[in-house]
Amino acid sequence: MESNRPRYCLGLLIMFMVVFSLGIERTANDYILAIVSFTGINIILAVSLNVTNGFAGLFSLGHPAFMAIGGYTTALLTFSMEKKPLFLPDLPQWLIPVHLPFFPALLVGGCFAALVAQIVGISVLRLKGHYLAVATMGFLIIVQVLLNNANSITRGPLGLNGLEEFTNVSWVAGWVVVTIYTCWKIKFSSLGRSMLAVKEDSMAANSLGVDLFYTRNFALTVGAFFAGVAGGLWGHLITAVTPGSFSLIMSFNIIVMVVVGGTGSITGSVTAAIIFTLAIECFRPLEENFGIYGVGEIVISLVLILILIFKPSGMFGTGEPKFVTGKYKQLSPTNGK
Amino acid sequence: MKKCFITIGLFFMSLPLATPCFSAEPIKIGALYSLTGGMSSIDTPSLRGAELAVKIINKNGGLLDGRMIELISVDAKTDQKAAAIGAKKLLSNGVIAGIGHSDPSFVLPSAPLFQKKGIPFVTSGATLPTLPMMIGDCLFMVPFGDDDQSFAIADYSFKSLGVKNVAIWTDNSMDFTKTLSKFYKQRMTELGAKIVLEDFFMMGDKDFSAQIARLKNVSPQPDAVFISSIPNEAGLTTKQLRENGLTLPIVSGDGFDTELIVTVPGKELANDVYFSTHTYRADPRPEVIQFIADYEKEYGVPPENAFAPLGYDAIALIADAITRAGSATPKALKESLAKTMGFKAVTGEISYTRPSRVPVKGVSIISVKKGEYNVEEIWFPTTK
Amino acid sequence: MTHKKHLLHVVDLVKRFGGLVAVSDYSLTLEQGELVGLIGPNGAGKTTVFNLLSGVLKSSSGNFFFNSQNITKFSPAQTARVGIARTFQNIRLFEDLSVLDNIKVAFHMHHGKGFLNTIFHTKKFRQTEKEITQKAMEFAELMNLTELIHEPAKKLPYGDQRRVEIARALATNPKLLLLDEPAAGMNPQETAELMRTIKEIHAKQDMTILIVEHDMRLVMNLCQRLQVLNQGQLLAQGTPEEIQNSPEVIKAYLGSPKENPHAIC
Amino acid sequence: MDFGYIAQQLANGLILGSMYALVAIGFSMIYGIVRLINFAHGDIVMIGAFTTLVLMETAGLPFPLVAFFVLLTGCGMGILIERISFRPMRGAPQVTGFIASLGISIMLQNLGILTLSAQPRNFSFPSYMQRILNLGPVSFRVVDVVIILTAFFLMVALIFLVQKTKLGIAMRATAENIDVARLMGIDINKTIMATFAIGSGLAAIAGLMWGGKFGQIDPLMGYVPGLKSFVAAVIGGVGSIPGAILGAFILGLSEVLFVGLLPPIYSSYRDAFVFGVLIIILIAMPNGLLGKDIGDKA
């Protein structure tokens, strides 16, 4: 039915990622590598938030909370056994011998975030629009407060540090591919269609037999899983997690990427995540040379507002651009009406 | 639009790459401070202090037969991610040392990266005493540890102010303030004082009426209240306590070392406040007077808080170590820094003689009476 | 159970909004394969009846049974699952989705959620998707939409949007189809076409249809049986001829001289 | 815990609540008309505070005149922001405006840091505003009374404005249905601009009061009032002016009482508690306490 173009694109993406990550890890310096890794993590975050916010239309501000849950879980699971008694003397007994390698730890982190999302979903998914936004923001703040106060496990405001630097460009690239692939598959499937339908008109979708709660909760959970994984990658990239890192500001930043890219468009989220991460870094030399710190943020905000004025649906709208999807083979070129 | 972005992006990306590395002429030092976001009110003065030090050193002919210091400053944006990226940026720029940060939460993601490369990192403001242990032999602290400043003010409040019952207010959102309270509590209990009330608030709080009402109702009434906060809440707590008719002494650590405790409540109400801090405020030593004069001349305002001289000292300390080592390689610098003995910094003499490598420095006890700052005594750590 | 033979059996349905009684003691019995019209002046409560039957609103009292199952408290999704599909008076399409995707959404409930199948792109998944597309195309063809399937729904003219909505409702494979003013906003030619299609659906698929409509010509020509609602109450029911000659009905319609056949009620 | 203690806590909660109310009224008003969550509202509070500082300290103007100019500045900022950024976005999805307001907020904050420096400034009201009053066991300051009275006065004035004046009728019509209002000959642009002017003017006045009450201002001070007014408005039901005030008082009271009545160690859980309550209120009453259903496609 549909064109093979997406499959080629996926193949190209994987090939590009392999070549790119191998190439850059050999040639670039740490700074470039860090930016590339953060770009990748931002792609994961934006694409996965797009499932929640873009496909299902749930205006969630809680993405960093899921990141924090995934990040802390992964960090505790991979924490070096020698350092544990020194850094975390009050750790509950049962947690002391628990140790996992990086990959399973990431999965556990993601799954735990997804599990929490299920529970949160049960309580807040009845809310709509801005009310949901406030409730998820509340969830984020509650998670922050709990992390801040659960000293024995999280070391409070200081956070967990001294994590192994597991995350590198290859890890991130791998997860970027997995995220994009999964979200793409969801979008172009029965599940994704029902999410989009729920976003467009929940009552009509419901009348067509779409289970609103299941669909919304599923969208939240998928988003949370990848946010959790991204949190794990994030923590092992900067080797520390603290409650303050997973803030409302971060939530705003991810939402900006989703909106600028086009709510619902995976290609858009990827592009916007790349542009935003790089743009912020690009302003650094300017700020440093002239001592005008904060100018980068001002310019980016201005550009953001201009984009919203002149292209309110974002760069790609809800859809995916033609160069990725290809033309529908069956479509007879009709220009009727 | 997109193309435009990418073009601009590539242009700026290429800037740091394109700058050719001059043949080791200037000595590059990296500075990591949060110049935007919540920490900026604390970190910006530090950077200004550091820049002042660099300017003075370069004006006097630089180091090692005329090599200039080049201070590369990166904004950590009150964000750990930016702190880590910033550290990597500095390291890939070939700095021989890094300075910065006034809070351990930001030292922790950036300093280990320096440690890994064997490049020394001098934190100008983070006072967590376990930092050198957590990061390694490349981390050096300019300030004293929180244990010292807490012990100092505890000793003073017990012995000189005669405080037998004390209330403790802690900003529970920061590690610095929690640590400060922990050590104060420890010392006061050792001395035999009683903690009659422990209360908490969060950074960014503006209204302390609930805490004040509780303080008024506690029995027995405390002889003093210890407020562990950063400068942003120092003036507010003082003002609100005094306005509510509480005249008991307020004691604190270097978070209270700010003009705000006088300007916010006004001179009348800024009374009976005591805090321990870096020995520079109201201190007659020549290096302090010189620093304040230079700072005022450069920026038109007196140093905003104690973090300004600390930033200045971080550079001065490195410069001293480079001069002593006669070389500007990271390895030599690290060894030379570790051997620092009796370096006369603005904020007190620095010697790394302790096994913990937290400097043994004098701690000033400052009193504020009707808006006037006075040095009450200089406290020295007794142990080790 | 006395409702055994009936497809839909509504008993004394009441809906109150605050103090206002929108529908009172409404009853209806539908047999398999009937085509029944529900008419009445503006504000008579016709759409409220539809909203109750499709689970969008919850009844204040009364019950209704579908294939002798009590579905009074079912959600819209559950109602759709047992086999009741509906269209909306003010068209509710998924505007940003293409016509084809609009129809495809209706298959969701029959093909399960299959998350793992979706992710791993299994053979079963591909087969299902293929089937869905094929069937959706069939329904598009039925409603004469083949040429428009890749257009976003919002770009379609009014009449086409109505037809997409009907196609979408049919795609849920219902036993009972509720059509809420399907001809509203259509020109006479479109209406005639629609009438033909409804007849076709009714005949070919042995579909039971309940229709709310203002266009009297359409209703009289199409329906075997009519119910008249007035101020929430059942005024009369019978064959089109009986209704046309009923004095109560004439009074009710004449009693509201400002009647506008296309107004929103 | 005696009566006096509880009375004092209640009074503190009310004072804090009226502080939040001042900000939340304008916030809720703008939301009611254009369905925009305006995060830049908090930063207008900051601008109001700094304008006051400049006018009082450098220009040395008398206090009532200062208040007047601050009000004007706020109105001007509101009109400017509406004209430049929100008007071109009208008709776009709601999220768009929300994101844009975040952009404006970040911009204003960073501009503030760049031009004013991040250092907190002290800010003092004339001394007669600082006098302490005692009412039985409860003590408060003149400025607290002024704040409560201002909040109350503004609420009454706004309700009068919305219910009785021509502008108010235009506002309500616009809030109800923008297209119908346009058809009825209402100048939508003017109405929305007036709403922004009034809402932002109130925010600037709130900034003056905020500075006067707490005595310290900085470029990032707008974040907390912005967030709190958002929460207060949502609790009360966004778009409803009495709702915003009710929400603000509930927020202020619950914050103070949570800290004041529970053992101190719970203080650091305050925000979790406040937001927990918020979520429970929303789940029980999905449109806030006094709000209307905002429709399916919110």
For the termini of chain B, the CA-CA separation is 64 Å
Oligomer: heterotetramer
Number of helices of chain B: 13
Number of strands of chain D: 4
What would CATH call the architecture of the largest domain in chain B?
Answer: 3-Layer(aba) Sandwich
Kindly provide the name of the CATH class of the largest domain in chain B: Alpha Beta
Strand order of the largest sheet of chain D: 1-4
Content of β-strand of chain D: under 5%
Mean pLDDT across residues of chain D: 85
Q: How many helical stretches of chain D?
A: 12
**CATH superfamily heading of the largest domain in chain B:** Response regulator
Describe the main β-sheet of chain D briefly: 2 strands, antiparallel
Q: Low-confidence parts of chain B lasting 5 or more residues at pLDDT below 50?
A: 13-24
Order of helices and strands of chain D: HHHHEHEEHHHHEHHH
Helix content of chain B: 40-55%
Instruction: Report the end-to-end length of chain D measured between terminal Cα atoms.
Output: 45 Å
How many domain modules of chain B?
Answer: 2
What is the secondary structure topology, with strand pairs?
The complex is a heterotetramer of chains A (337), B (384), C (265) and D (298).
Chain A: H1 5-27, H2 30-55, H3 63-78, H4 83-87, H5 102-124, H6 129-149, H7 151-154, E1 160-161, H8 169-187, H9 190-200, H10 202-207, H11 212-238, E2 240-241, H12 248-261, H13 266-290, H14 295-310, H15 322-325
Antiparallel strand pairs in A: 1-2
Chain B: H1 2-18, E1 27-33, H2 40-59, E2 69-75, H3 80-92, E3 97-100, H4 104-117, E4 121-123, H5 131-135, E5 139-141, H6 146-160, E6 165-171, H7 175-191, E7 194-201, H8 209-217, E8 224-228, H9 231-243, E9 250-252, H10 260-263, E10 273-278, H11 286-299, H12 307-325, H13 330-338, E11 343-345, E12 348-350, E13 363-369, E14 372-379
Parallel strand pairs in B: 1-2, 1-3, 3-4, 4-5, 6-7, 6-8, 8-9, 9-10
Antiparallel strand pairs in B: 10-13, 11-12, 13-14
Helix pairs in contact in B: 2-12, 3-4, 6-7, 12-13
Chain D: H1 3-34, H2 41-59, H3 63-86, H4 94-116, E1 121-122, H5 127-130, E2 132-135, E3 138-141, H6 142-164, H7 166-176, H8 178-183, H9 188-214, E4 216-217, H10 223-236, H11 241-261, H12 270-284
Antiparallel strand pairs in D: 1-4, 2-3
Helix pairs in contact in D: 1-6, 1-9, 1-10, 1-11, 2-3, 2-9, 2-10, 3-9, 6-7, 6-9, 7-9, 10-11, 11-12
